[in-house]
Specification:
By secondary structure, this protein is an alpha/beta fold. It is built from 13 helices and 19 strands. The mean pLDDT is 97.
Length: 459
Protein backbone atom coordinates (compact mmCIF):
# COMPACT_ATOMS: atom_id res chain seq x y z
CA UNK A 1 0.00 0.00 0.00
CA UNK A 2 1.35 3.43 -0.95
CA UNK A 3 -0.07 6.84 -0.04
CA UNK A 4 0.89 10.29 -1.30
CA UNK A 5 -0.08 13.26 0.86
CA UNK A 6 0.03 16.40 -1.27
CA UNK A 7 0.71 20.03 -0.38
CA UNK A 8 0.31 19.79 3.40
CA UNK A 9 1.81 22.17 5.91
CA UNK A 10 4.21 19.76 7.61
CA UNK A 11 4.93 20.63 11.24
CA UNK A 12 7.42 18.87 13.49
CA UNK A 13 9.01 19.95 16.77
CA UNK A 14 11.79 21.65 14.78
CA UNK A 15 10.33 22.66 11.41
CA UNK A 16 7.33 24.06 9.53
CA UNK A 17 7.10 23.86 5.73
CA UNK A 18 4.86 22.98 2.75
CA UNK A 19 5.60 19.57 1.23
CA UNK A 20 4.36 16.23 -0.08
CA UNK A 21 4.89 13.04 1.91
CA UNK A 22 5.18 9.66 0.20
CA UNK A 23 4.40 6.58 2.27
CA UNK A 24 5.11 3.01 1.23
CA UNK A 25 4.36 0.07 3.46
CA UNK A 26 4.63 1.18 7.10
CA UNK A 27 7.20 3.94 6.64
CA UNK A 28 7.78 7.40 5.26
CA UNK A 29 9.86 7.03 2.09
CA UNK A 30 10.14 10.58 0.72
CA UNK A 31 9.37 14.19 1.69
CA UNK A 32 9.58 17.12 -0.70
CA UNK A 33 7.78 19.46 -3.06
CA UNK A 34 6.04 18.04 -6.14
CA UNK A 35 7.10 14.46 -5.47
CA UNK A 36 6.90 12.38 -8.69
CA UNK A 37 5.53 9.20 -7.11
CA UNK A 38 2.33 7.48 -8.22
CA UNK A 39 0.54 6.05 -5.23
CA UNK A 40 -2.35 3.72 -4.56
CA UNK A 41 -4.04 6.58 -2.73
CA UNK A 42 -3.54 10.35 -2.91
CA UNK A 43 -4.69 12.71 -0.16
CA UNK A 44 -4.97 16.44 -0.79
CA UNK A 45 -3.76 18.21 2.36
CA UNK A 46 -3.73 21.75 0.96
CA UNK A 47 -4.49 24.29 3.72
CA UNK A 48 -4.25 21.50 6.29
CA UNK A 49 -1.62 20.81 8.95
CA UNK A 50 0.26 17.51 8.95
CA UNK A 51 1.62 16.41 12.34
CA UNK A 52 3.36 13.25 13.55
CA UNK A 53 0.89 10.95 15.26
CA UNK A 54 0.26 11.87 18.87
CA UNK A 55 1.73 9.83 21.71
CA UNK A 56 -0.16 9.70 25.00
CA UNK A 57 2.21 8.20 27.57
CA UNK A 58 -0.35 8.06 30.37
CA UNK A 59 -3.47 5.94 29.96
CA UNK A 60 -5.25 3.25 31.98
CA UNK A 61 -7.14 0.77 29.82
CA UNK A 62 -9.18 -2.05 31.36
CA UNK A 63 -7.54 -1.27 34.69
CA UNK A 64 -8.88 -2.75 37.95
CA UNK A 65 -9.40 0.01 40.51
CA UNK A 66 -11.51 0.52 43.63
CA UNK A 67 -13.62 -2.58 43.06
CA UNK A 68 -14.34 -1.95 39.40
CA UNK A 69 -12.42 -1.47 36.12
CA UNK A 70 -11.90 1.46 33.80
CA UNK A 71 -14.55 1.37 31.12
CA UNK A 72 -12.38 1.57 27.99
CA UNK A 73 -10.63 -1.64 26.99
CA UNK A 74 -7.74 -1.77 24.52
CA UNK A 75 -9.96 -1.95 21.46
CA UNK A 76 -12.27 0.90 22.35
CA UNK A 77 -9.62 3.02 24.05
CA UNK A 78 -7.10 2.94 21.21
CA UNK A 79 -9.88 3.51 18.67
CA UNK A 80 -11.01 6.63 20.53
CA UNK A 81 -7.39 7.78 20.70
CA UNK A 82 -7.06 7.44 16.92
CA UNK A 83 -10.18 9.53 16.34
CA UNK A 84 -8.42 12.33 18.19
CA UNK A 85 -5.06 11.97 16.44
CA UNK A 86 -3.22 9.88 19.04
CA UNK A 87 -1.63 6.92 17.28
CA UNK A 88 0.20 5.41 20.25
CA UNK A 89 -0.41 5.08 23.98
CA UNK A 90 1.64 3.82 26.91
CA UNK A 91 -0.43 1.99 29.51
CA UNK A 92 0.50 1.02 33.07
CA UNK A 93 0.98 -2.57 34.16
CA UNK A 94 0.22 -2.88 37.88
CA UNK A 95 2.24 -5.43 39.81
CA UNK A 96 0.14 -7.08 42.51
CA UNK A 97 1.94 -6.81 45.82
CA UNK A 98 3.48 -10.19 46.60
CA UNK A 99 3.39 -11.30 42.95
CA UNK A 100 5.94 -11.01 40.15
CA UNK A 101 6.44 -8.49 37.35
CA UNK A 102 6.36 -11.43 34.92
CA UNK A 103 2.82 -12.37 35.96
CA UNK A 104 1.71 -8.75 35.78
CA UNK A 105 3.06 -8.53 32.22
CA UNK A 106 1.14 -11.66 31.21
CA UNK A 107 -2.07 -10.16 32.58
CA UNK A 108 -1.69 -6.98 30.53
CA UNK A 109 -0.65 -8.86 27.40
CA UNK A 110 -3.93 -10.76 27.61
CA UNK A 111 -5.78 -7.43 27.77
CA UNK A 112 -4.02 -5.93 24.75
CA UNK A 113 -2.81 -8.54 22.26
CA UNK A 114 -5.25 -8.99 19.39
CA UNK A 115 -7.43 -6.18 20.73
CA UNK A 116 -5.52 -2.93 20.31
CA UNK A 117 -6.20 -0.93 17.16
CA UNK A 118 -3.54 1.72 17.80
CA UNK A 119 0.07 1.03 18.77
CA UNK A 120 0.94 0.72 22.45
CA UNK A 121 3.61 0.04 25.02
CA UNK A 122 3.74 -0.41 28.79
CA UNK A 123 5.17 1.21 31.88
CA UNK A 124 5.73 -1.31 34.67
CA UNK A 125 4.39 -0.19 38.05
CA UNK A 126 6.59 -1.59 40.81
CA UNK A 127 4.54 -1.98 43.98
CA UNK A 128 6.70 -4.57 45.79
CA UNK A 129 10.44 -4.03 45.42
CA UNK A 130 12.88 -6.71 46.61
CA UNK A 131 15.91 -8.64 45.31
CA UNK A 132 13.76 -10.81 43.04
CA UNK A 133 11.98 -7.76 41.66
CA UNK A 134 15.34 -6.11 40.96
CA UNK A 135 16.32 -9.00 38.68
CA UNK A 136 12.96 -8.76 36.92
CA UNK A 137 13.45 -5.04 36.34
CA UNK A 138 16.68 -5.80 34.48
CA UNK A 139 14.88 -8.45 32.41
CA UNK A 140 12.11 -6.02 31.51
CA UNK A 141 14.61 -3.45 30.23
CA UNK A 142 16.91 -5.82 28.36
CA UNK A 143 14.48 -8.44 27.02
CA UNK A 144 10.94 -7.06 27.00
CA UNK A 145 11.58 -3.48 25.85
CA UNK A 146 9.85 -2.03 28.93
CA UNK A 147 12.22 0.68 30.12
CA UNK A 148 10.09 2.87 32.41
CA UNK A 149 9.01 1.95 35.92
CA UNK A 150 6.11 3.62 37.73
CA UNK A 151 6.17 4.20 41.46
CA UNK A 152 3.53 5.54 43.83
CA UNK A 153 4.10 7.78 46.83
CA UNK A 154 0.43 7.28 47.78
CA UNK A 155 -2.15 4.45 48.01
CA UNK A 156 -0.49 2.76 50.98
CA UNK A 157 -1.27 -0.94 51.25
CA UNK A 158 -2.03 -1.30 47.57
CA UNK A 159 0.46 0.50 45.31
CA UNK A 160 2.81 2.60 47.44
CA UNK A 161 6.47 1.76 48.06
CA UNK A 162 8.51 3.50 50.75
CA UNK A 163 11.42 5.86 50.13
CA UNK A 164 14.01 3.20 50.86
CA UNK A 165 12.56 0.90 48.22
CA UNK A 166 12.30 3.84 45.85
CA UNK A 167 16.01 4.65 46.06
CA UNK A 168 17.02 1.01 45.61
CA UNK A 169 14.81 0.77 42.51
CA UNK A 170 16.35 3.97 41.16
CA UNK A 171 19.84 2.53 41.44
CA UNK A 172 18.92 -0.62 39.53
CA UNK A 173 17.08 1.31 36.83
CA UNK A 174 19.95 3.80 36.54
CA UNK A 175 22.50 1.05 35.99
CA UNK A 176 20.53 -0.48 33.12
CA UNK A 177 19.39 2.58 31.19
CA UNK A 178 15.80 2.90 32.33
CA UNK A 179 13.65 5.64 33.80
CA UNK A 180 11.68 5.91 37.05
CA UNK A 181 8.32 7.65 36.90
CA UNK A 182 6.23 8.67 39.89
CA UNK A 183 2.80 9.55 41.17
CA UNK A 184 4.11 12.29 43.43
CA UNK A 185 1.71 13.02 46.27
CA UNK A 186 2.18 12.63 50.03
CA UNK A 187 -0.01 9.60 50.71
CA UNK A 188 0.21 9.75 54.50
CA UNK A 189 -0.98 13.34 54.64
CA UNK A 190 -3.79 12.65 52.17
CA UNK A 191 -4.98 9.58 54.07
CA UNK A 192 -5.06 11.61 57.27
CA UNK A 193 -7.14 14.37 55.67
CA UNK A 194 -9.55 11.87 54.11
CA UNK A 195 -10.10 10.27 57.50
CA UNK A 196 -10.62 13.68 59.11
CA UNK A 197 -13.23 14.78 56.56
CA UNK A 198 -15.08 11.48 56.71
CA UNK A 199 -15.18 11.62 60.51
CA UNK A 200 -16.70 15.10 60.26
CA UNK A 201 -19.36 13.89 57.82
CA UNK A 202 -17.90 15.93 54.95
CA UNK A 203 -18.50 13.45 52.15
CA UNK A 204 -19.18 15.43 48.96
CA UNK A 205 -16.75 15.46 45.98
CA UNK A 206 -15.41 18.83 47.13
CA UNK A 207 -13.66 17.04 49.99
CA UNK A 208 -11.76 14.86 47.56
CA UNK A 209 -10.11 18.10 46.44
CA UNK A 210 -9.68 19.44 49.98
CA UNK A 211 -8.03 16.17 51.05
CA UNK A 212 -5.23 16.71 48.54
CA UNK A 213 -4.01 20.30 49.00
CA UNK A 214 -1.21 21.65 46.85
CA UNK A 215 1.41 21.03 49.54
CA UNK A 216 0.88 17.25 49.29
CA UNK A 217 2.04 17.32 45.66
CA UNK A 218 4.72 19.98 46.06
CA UNK A 219 6.39 18.16 48.97
CA UNK A 220 6.36 14.78 47.23
CA UNK A 221 7.69 16.23 43.97
CA UNK A 222 10.61 17.85 45.81
CA UNK A 223 11.32 14.64 47.72
CA UNK A 224 11.28 12.59 44.52
CA UNK A 225 13.69 15.04 42.86
CA UNK A 226 16.01 14.80 45.87
CA UNK A 227 16.02 11.00 45.72
CA UNK A 228 16.71 11.07 41.99
CA UNK A 229 19.64 13.42 42.59
CA UNK A 230 21.05 11.20 45.29
CA UNK A 231 20.71 8.07 43.11
CA UNK A 232 21.86 9.84 39.89
CA UNK A 233 18.82 8.40 38.17
CA UNK A 234 16.66 9.95 35.43
CA UNK A 235 13.06 10.51 36.50
CA UNK A 236 9.68 11.65 35.28
CA UNK A 237 6.78 13.07 37.30
CA UNK A 238 3.39 12.10 35.89
CA UNK A 239 0.24 14.25 35.86
CA UNK A 240 1.67 17.37 37.53
CA UNK A 241 -1.13 19.76 38.48
CA UNK A 242 0.14 22.76 40.38
CA UNK A 243 2.52 25.67 40.76
CA UNK A 244 4.06 24.32 43.96
CA UNK A 245 5.11 21.05 42.36
CA UNK A 246 6.43 22.88 39.31
CA UNK A 247 8.53 25.10 41.58
CA UNK A 248 10.04 21.98 43.16
CA UNK A 249 11.30 20.97 39.72
CA UNK A 250 12.40 24.53 38.98
CA UNK A 251 14.46 24.50 42.19
CA UNK A 252 16.12 21.24 41.13
CA UNK A 253 17.48 22.97 38.04
CA UNK A 254 19.69 25.13 40.28
CA UNK A 255 21.85 22.05 40.91
CA UNK A 256 21.85 21.30 37.15
CA UNK A 257 19.33 18.48 37.58
CA UNK A 258 16.82 17.57 34.87
CA UNK A 259 13.54 16.06 36.06
CA UNK A 260 11.04 15.34 33.30
CA UNK A 261 7.48 16.52 33.85
CA UNK A 262 4.14 15.58 32.36
CA UNK A 263 0.93 17.49 32.84
CA UNK A 264 -2.50 16.64 31.42
CA UNK A 265 -5.13 18.46 29.41
CA UNK A 266 -7.55 18.62 32.34
CA UNK A 267 -5.06 20.55 34.48
CA UNK A 268 -4.56 23.06 31.68
CA UNK A 269 -8.27 23.62 30.99
CA UNK A 270 -10.43 22.74 34.04
CA UNK A 271 -10.39 23.92 37.66
CA UNK A 272 -11.53 22.88 41.12
CA UNK A 273 -14.75 24.93 41.03
CA UNK A 274 -16.32 21.91 39.29
CA UNK A 275 -16.23 19.97 42.57
CA UNK A 276 -18.99 22.22 43.94
CA UNK A 277 -21.42 20.99 41.30
CA UNK A 278 -23.95 18.24 42.01
CA UNK A 279 -22.22 16.10 39.39
CA UNK A 280 -18.76 16.91 40.78
CA UNK A 281 -17.93 13.18 40.90
CA UNK A 282 -17.26 13.34 37.15
CA UNK A 283 -14.01 15.18 37.88
CA UNK A 284 -12.81 13.14 40.84
CA UNK A 285 -9.29 12.12 39.88
CA UNK A 286 -5.94 12.06 41.66
CA UNK A 287 -4.33 14.49 41.87
CA UNK A 288 -7.47 16.65 41.72
CA UNK A 289 -8.14 19.66 39.54
CA UNK A 290 -6.50 22.81 40.92
CA UNK A 291 -6.90 26.59 40.68
CA UNK A 292 -6.71 29.07 37.80
CA UNK A 293 -3.26 30.22 38.94
CA UNK A 294 -2.00 26.66 38.49
CA UNK A 295 -3.17 26.62 34.87
CA UNK A 296 -1.15 29.78 34.25
CA UNK A 297 1.91 28.21 35.88
CA UNK A 298 1.64 25.01 33.83
CA UNK A 299 1.27 26.79 30.48
CA UNK A 300 4.30 28.87 31.45
CA UNK A 301 6.15 25.71 32.45
CA UNK A 302 5.55 24.26 28.99
CA UNK A 303 7.05 27.31 27.33
CA UNK A 304 9.99 27.41 29.75
CA UNK A 305 10.83 23.76 29.07
CA UNK A 306 10.03 22.66 32.62
CA UNK A 307 7.04 20.62 31.39
CA UNK A 308 7.95 18.34 28.49
CA UNK A 309 4.81 16.26 27.89
CA UNK A 310 1.02 16.66 27.89
CA UNK A 311 -0.84 13.37 28.45
CA UNK A 312 -4.32 12.57 29.72
CA UNK A 313 -4.25 10.04 32.59
CA UNK A 314 -7.23 8.60 30.70
CA UNK A 315 -9.05 6.37 33.19
CA UNK A 316 -12.76 6.49 32.32
CA UNK A 317 -15.70 5.25 34.34
CA UNK A 318 -19.40 5.36 33.55
CA UNK A 319 -21.70 7.52 35.61
CA UNK A 320 -23.08 4.36 37.27
CA UNK A 321 -19.55 3.45 38.34
CA UNK A 322 -18.99 6.96 39.68
CA UNK A 323 -22.14 6.54 41.79
CA UNK A 324 -20.29 3.98 43.91
CA UNK A 325 -19.21 7.05 45.87
CA UNK A 326 -22.54 8.85 45.89
CA UNK A 327 -22.53 9.00 49.69
CA UNK A 328 -18.77 9.10 50.27
CA UNK A 329 -16.20 10.86 48.06
CA UNK A 330 -13.51 8.36 49.07
CA UNK A 331 -15.39 5.59 47.26
CA UNK A 332 -15.67 7.41 43.91
CA UNK A 333 -13.48 5.67 41.29
CA UNK A 334 -10.73 8.13 40.39
CA UNK A 335 -10.39 9.10 36.73
CA UNK A 336 -12.09 10.63 33.71
CA UNK A 337 -12.44 10.13 29.92
CA UNK A 338 -9.91 12.21 27.97
CA UNK A 339 -7.91 10.14 25.47
CA UNK A 340 -9.86 11.33 22.42
CA UNK A 341 -9.72 15.08 23.05
CA UNK A 342 -6.06 15.62 23.99
CA UNK A 343 -4.73 16.80 20.62
CA UNK A 344 -7.71 19.00 19.71
CA UNK A 345 -7.90 20.61 23.15
CA UNK A 346 -4.17 21.26 23.26
CA UNK A 347 -4.28 22.81 19.80
CA UNK A 348 -7.37 24.92 20.46
CA UNK A 349 -6.46 26.10 23.97
CA UNK A 350 -2.73 26.28 23.32
CA UNK A 351 -1.95 27.23 19.72
CA UNK A 352 -5.36 28.77 19.05
CA UNK A 353 -5.14 31.10 22.04
CA UNK A 354 -1.49 32.02 21.56
CA UNK A 355 -0.20 30.15 24.59
CA UNK A 356 2.18 27.87 22.67
CA UNK A 357 3.61 27.66 19.16
CA UNK A 358 2.83 24.98 16.59
CA UNK A 359 6.28 23.49 17.08
CA UNK A 360 5.79 23.38 20.84
CA UNK A 361 2.42 21.69 20.29
CA UNK A 362 4.10 18.85 18.37
CA UNK A 363 6.91 18.69 20.90
CA UNK A 364 4.66 18.15 23.93
CA UNK A 365 2.01 16.03 22.21
CA UNK A 366 4.36 13.60 20.46
CA UNK A 367 8.09 14.20 20.03
CA UNK A 368 9.20 14.58 23.64
CA UNK A 369 7.35 11.44 24.71
CA UNK A 370 9.06 9.51 21.90
CA UNK A 371 12.47 10.78 23.02
CA UNK A 372 11.98 10.34 26.75
CA UNK A 373 10.54 6.84 26.42
CA UNK A 374 13.00 5.46 23.89
CA UNK A 375 11.05 5.43 20.60
CA UNK A 376 12.59 8.32 18.66
CA UNK A 377 12.97 8.68 15.68
CA UNK A 378 10.77 5.69 14.81
CA UNK A 379 7.91 7.54 16.49
CA UNK A 380 7.30 11.21 17.24
CA UNK A 381 8.50 12.88 14.06
CA UNK A 382 7.98 13.17 10.30
CA UNK A 383 11.20 11.93 8.71
CA UNK A 384 12.34 9.45 6.10
CA UNK A 385 12.38 6.00 7.66
CA UNK A 386 10.03 6.89 10.51
CA UNK A 387 6.76 5.03 11.00
CA UNK A 388 4.07 6.62 8.85
CA UNK A 389 2.01 7.78 11.83
CA UNK A 390 0.51 10.99 10.49
CA UNK A 391 -2.33 13.33 11.38
CA UNK A 392 -3.99 15.58 8.79
CA UNK A 393 -5.59 18.35 10.78
CA UNK A 394 -7.94 21.16 9.77
CA UNK A 395 -7.07 24.19 11.93
CA UNK A 396 -10.20 26.10 10.93
CA UNK A 397 -12.94 23.58 11.74
CA UNK A 398 -15.02 24.56 14.76
CA UNK A 399 -16.90 21.92 16.74
CA UNK A 400 -18.30 21.24 20.19
CA UNK A 401 -17.16 18.39 22.44
CA UNK A 402 -19.91 16.16 23.79
CA UNK A 403 -20.54 12.64 25.08
CA UNK A 404 -23.06 12.32 22.25
CA UNK A 405 -20.29 12.38 19.66
CA UNK A 406 -17.17 11.04 21.38
CA UNK A 407 -16.01 7.44 20.94
CA UNK A 408 -14.92 6.72 24.51
CA UNK A 409 -16.97 4.28 26.57
CA UNK A 410 -18.29 6.90 28.97
CA UNK A 411 -21.82 8.28 29.10
CA UNK A 412 -20.65 11.79 30.01
CA UNK A 413 -17.89 14.13 28.90
CA UNK A 414 -15.55 16.02 31.19
CA UNK A 415 -15.53 18.69 28.46
CA UNK A 416 -19.24 18.78 27.63
CA UNK A 417 -20.02 21.90 25.60
CA UNK A 418 -16.38 22.94 25.07
CA UNK A 419 -16.09 24.93 21.85
CA UNK A 420 -12.96 23.84 20.02
CA UNK A 421 -11.26 25.20 16.93
CA UNK A 422 -9.25 22.61 15.02
CA UNK A 423 -10.18 19.04 14.15
CA UNK A 424 -8.43 15.79 13.30
CA UNK A 425 -9.66 14.73 9.85
CA UNK A 426 -7.44 11.89 8.63
CA UNK A 427 -5.05 9.67 10.60
CA UNK A 428 -2.48 7.21 9.27
CA UNK A 429 -1.02 4.51 11.48
CA UNK A 430 2.04 2.76 10.07
CA UNK A 431 0.99 3.56 6.52
CA UNK A 432 -2.65 2.55 6.77
CA UNK A 433 -5.59 4.95 6.87
CA UNK A 434 -6.92 4.58 10.40
CA UNK A 435 -9.41 7.46 10.54
CA UNK A 436 -11.09 9.25 7.64
CA UNK A 437 -14.49 10.90 7.23
CA UNK A 438 -15.17 10.24 10.92
CA UNK A 439 -14.88 6.47 10.51
CA UNK A 440 -12.30 4.01 11.79
CA UNK A 441 -10.91 1.83 9.00
CA UNK A 442 -8.73 -0.49 11.08
CA UNK A 443 -9.72 -3.59 13.01
CA UNK A 444 -8.84 -4.86 16.47
CA UNK A 445 -5.40 -6.43 16.43
CA UNK A 446 -3.77 -3.96 14.02
CA UNK A 447 -2.08 -2.19 16.92
CA UNK A 448 1.41 -3.41 17.72
CA UNK A 449 3.35 -3.53 20.96
CA UNK A 450 6.35 -1.20 20.61
CA UNK A 451 9.55 -2.33 22.33
CA UNK A 452 11.38 0.69 23.62
CA UNK A 453 15.06 1.45 23.85
CA UNK A 454 17.01 3.20 26.56
CA UNK A 455 15.87 6.63 27.60
CA UNK A 456 17.13 9.57 25.55
CA UNK A 457 17.91 12.58 27.70
CA UNK A 458 18.90 14.88 24.84
CA UNK A 459 15.70 16.85 24.36
Amino acid sequence: MSILIKNGRVVTAESDYIADIYVEGESIVAIGKDLPYKADKTINARNKLVFPGGIDPHVHLDMPFMGTSSSDDYENGTRAALFGGTTMVIDFILQTQGDTLKNALKTWQAKSEGKAIGDYSYHMAVTDFNKKTAKEVIHMIEKEGITSFKTFMAYKGALMIDDGQMVQLMKVVRDHGGLVTVHATNGDMIDSLIAKHRAEGKLSPLYHYLSQPEVTEAEASARFADMLDYASCPGYIVHMTCEGALNAVRNATTRNQKVFVETCTQYLTLDASLYKRKDGAKWVMSPPLREKKDQVALWSGINHGLVQVVGTDHCPFTWKQKQMGKKDFSKIPNGHPAIEHRMELLFSEGVGKGRISLNKFVEVSSTNAAKIFGMYPRKGTIAIGADADLVIFNPRTRHVLSHKTHHMNADYSSYEGFKVKGKTETVLLRGQVAIDKNKCHLEAGYGQFVKRGKTSLTI
